[in-house]
């Protein structure tokens, strides 16, 4: 079918007429210039894909008339530019595609015609666990175990990468899905089939929203929706309201992007943005790096919005160059965005679009260092109040901010032995300290900040108790590269923060086992032990079954609390520790300033690093290269497999279209109250040995 909007197609460069784009500025409709930038992306996709079948001219008009239609619960189609998957949620999608090929073969068709139509990338990052830490070879040992545990899954995914067109698999050991997307996969502007158009993405992971920080509209969807998009179908979505979030002012010297996002999370939870887009604007946005913006966009699910969008500006363009993207393509990207009115100048208020009536404002100068916890990411606590807040939680009624510990047991102490030395645990003792998650490891400022703090701590004679499970799991190899080149990696290692793997790890509950003597002490004293992590979620049961309190914190604060060994400390009044000379060392003595961090970042975070790491990302993992994956175009299902089975969806499929059957007597499988999460229902970590699932798997060897 012909597209009714072809009259606005023109070449981006008259010298290269094959490269065309839909020039929305040629609509000559005053409503376009008033649309939020995120809605302009939806509009362009509708215009480009308008075929009067899947996308109709009426859909285009509804989006263009967003100011009126946003309140009318109108559904519109959206065809994203690409799909991104991680291995836990991606395996079922590839299984379904394999089953489709079988079905086509049985019906006498060509199975090789079954491929994703929309480009899809699958990043393997959810499989690795912190089994080993505080050792120079922890990384290799954890990766070896990862392959041992996941051999069947990895062979299947490698088969998929070879069998299907338009499906790229990023091997294990490469990084975390959203950081790899930010640093490598994202285009900002697509150059496909002779057309330029805005990059956009849906993913089978809720934190797909991280890419909104670069100006790529994206959010998480369910597996069925993702598969539909891969098969060329649009998403049907309610035209969203767009909350304008205005940022003004400059962050204080000691404030990190983590502090900013935890502040925004609490703020927007109070405002209520569920089912809406949040679009950031105002002069304060220009004070934030792309990594800062990506951190804020990453935690969009925690404040409840569908997407948290930062339109593309010159800082975005600079980030593309900094991360090693082709300069000529980057310049074409900028010219395209200028031509269609999608390049933002946050200091120019005349560019501010119309938002839904609700506009929220934050002065960045008012943000203070903070954490979130002990059970929810929206429960922000200023670092200066952490000790008091935790002690209040100890005695409070069981709930999000309470553990209901009897007052006479608040100061309980349990002695234990670890590696021949005697130690003590109490309520608030830190037993896990993890620098983890794409939320923060994608940000050089907080990672280098952690490294500089570690350097100053070691030079001041401070250490971390050996029973605390410390770990560093970067979101890409680039992080290790600049930590090593800047000279701070060895100081992180001295404090126990060796690289343990490239994946989500502690952030999703793959924190691995705690030492037995530590678990026994926690159990014996019924202690509220603590995990401190630079992740995005701290729901009860997520991080580790033995850490009832878990706090989200910036990477420098993770190290600070690891050194202190407890959450029950007032950094302003109490020392982090006392060195061998008897000198009290306070956090303020070793905390690096924003200027110090930026100086190191300018020197060591360079385009060459990104190019070197990502040029070989699909071939650098030797264990992956050595996997013996089948070469057939149809997958050979193993009937004895406990993991990968052919789904029954296509059993009985005929060439003649069958009438849908009525569903009768359907019933609710599970009904939950508020704040019951997938971490309670199906945690990503170890399967309990006494569970039915464990007994089944044991019976199958």
TrEMBL record:
EC numbers on record: 4.2.1.3
Enzyme class, spelled out: lyase
Required cofactor(s): [4Fe-4S] cluster
Superkingdom assignment: Eukaryota
PROSITE patterns named among the record's database cross-references: ACONITASE_1 (PS00450), ACONITASE_2 (PS01244)
Keyword list, A-Z: 4Fe-4S, Cytoplasm, Iron, Iron-sulfur, Lyase, Metal-binding
Alphabetized GO MF terms: 4 iron, 4 sulfur cluster binding; aconitate hydratase activity; metal ion binding
Predominant localisation class: cytoplasm
GO cellular component entries: cytoplasm
Domain Aconitase/3-isopropylmalate dehydratase large subunit alpha/beta/alpha: from-to ranges: 62-565
A Pfam cross-reference name: Aconitase
Location relative to the cell: Cytoplasm
InterPro entries on file: Acnase/IPM_dHydase_lsu_aba_1/3, Acoase/IPM_deHydtase_lsu_aba, Aconitase/3IPM_dehydase_swvl, Aconitase/IRP2, Aconitase_4Fe-4S_BS, Aconitase_4Fe-4S_dom
Catalytic activity: citrate = D-threo-isocitrate
Family: Belongs to the aconitase/IPM isomerase family.
Name recorded for this polypeptide: Cytoplasmic aconitate hydratase
Organism: Cinclus mexicanus
